[in-house]
């Protein structure tokens, strides 16, 4: 189909969000065109989730060899070969790239157009000299690193997630500005590869997570030799050949931290440049493209999904948004976003996973009826056997057992949180979890144990004991 005809759907951006919509729409028979200015797969595949998790996996394995968790297993010292680590990162990207490739999408019936899209009307865009018209347009243009305004900081002199995975040596000292998920994951990965690491965070690290579990992360990272400076006020940055000086305010006067590299991980900004959104009547604010709960913009024929909307920025959210838009555009259903059971995981080791409300959020909504229970990993047989007892589960619920949220700090917390996602989505109570039979010995048992503990005061209380006493007098059955 040529540009003169009108498509059913034009998707702008072939990252996690845009690819999911385009694949679904084409397979449902919508005439779909997908426009991509850069690399197919966007941030997640090329400069985000995939390379960061591959780097973390290599660093974790090296750490386990150098610092075995188990008595009787001797440590094994060796030099990090950064070239080999980078090869693993690139091989991981290459292994996953076919799934996001032009060839696969063309095979699904999507027309893929390479180039930067700009609106020229409410239903039309121009890309590389071609005009594309469509009944519906989905903007999935993603985000890129935000640069903080710090005197002396030159964006060309610092690393971001877009350049970090191309570094060919292990940094002597990496100064990480920002203690969000990127900052924390990359701080640990680089420390485990052998770098000195300092994290500078404006408030406290991982501010969206439960404080007790964040404290566990903080202690683990410090024990590995990472310097974490919270409430940091960065006064200035100075770049000299191969050396970067970061001046921070301190109670006893300014302090200078010297690094061989600086990684900036201070959040994201949407990719809106050159889109000419005003020509399509699409409103934006500081966070991104403004959408309603159905992900529709101020132009009723234009939806926006994924990172560019300024909502939660995760690949699973991009996929969730895509599903909502498909239901709206292909099936004309009034689908809406609901983040009540939205999980996220920071892939440090141990992992920090969360779903639903934190205790503070639950108290703001439900008052003192919202309560929490913390169960440490140290009482779990599998954790003891593995030598991995640092961690805990914190659940948040109402007195009737309705589950509001859960956070887990454990080696496989990202896998373990799935049970709680299901429980919250299905509006289950903690009682439902107590009746599960889970395999022994697994880390997942902590979920059932925590649910059981919630009911312990009632189960083993005076009323129950009285009931058992009465029942004891009944004849056998
Ligand atoms: C280091 C790092 C690690 C991460 N780890 C995780 C993780 O473990 N788990 C997780 O869930 N999330 C993670 N994320 C977040 C995740 O990568 C993003 O939420 C996700 O990639 C967003 O997808 P998207 O499709 O909205 O945007 P993008 O992937 O940014 O895709 C947008 C695409 O649109 C294209 N584009 C932009 N403007 C135009 C235009 N005008 N015309 C044509 N094309 C255009 C861009 O070239 C890009 O390819 C991580 C992010 C980073 C940076
Ligand atoms: N595991 C995951 O799911 C994962 C991993 C990495 C990234 N991501 C996503 O990528 C996005 C970007 O991650 P991020 O960590 O860059 O962003 P973020 O916004 O989550 O964290 C950035 C942190 O930097 C701090 N900060 C900002 N300016 C600062 C300054 N001048 N000095 C010191 N600290 C400063 C902020 O207080 C904030 O806590 C996030 O939205 C996240 O959802 C997800």
Structural class: alpha/beta
Radius of gyration: 25 Å
Which consecutive residue ranges, at least 5 long each, have pLDDT under 50?
none
CATH superfamily of the domain at 343-462: FAD/NAD-linked reductase, C-terminal dimerisation domain
CATH class of the domain at 343-462: Alpha Beta
The count of β-strands is: 21
* Biggest β-sheet strands, sense, barrel: 7 strands, mixed
Mean pLDDT: 96
Task: Assess the beta-strand content as a share of residues.
Answer: 15-25%
Question: What is the CATH topology assignment of the domain at 343-462?
Answer: Enolase-like, domain 1
- Approximate helicity band: 25-40%
Continuous helix count = 14
Which hetero compounds are present in the coordinates?
flavin-adenine dinucleotide, nicotinamide-adenine-dinucleotide
From the spread of the alpha carbons, the general shape counts as globular
What separation lies between the terminal Cα atoms? 76 Å
Supply the CATH architecture of the domain at 343-462: 2-Layer Sandwich
Cofactor: FAD
Family: Belongs to the class-I pyridine nucleotide-disulfide oxidoreductase family.
Protein name: Dihydrolipoamide dehydrogenase
Disulfide bonds: 44-49
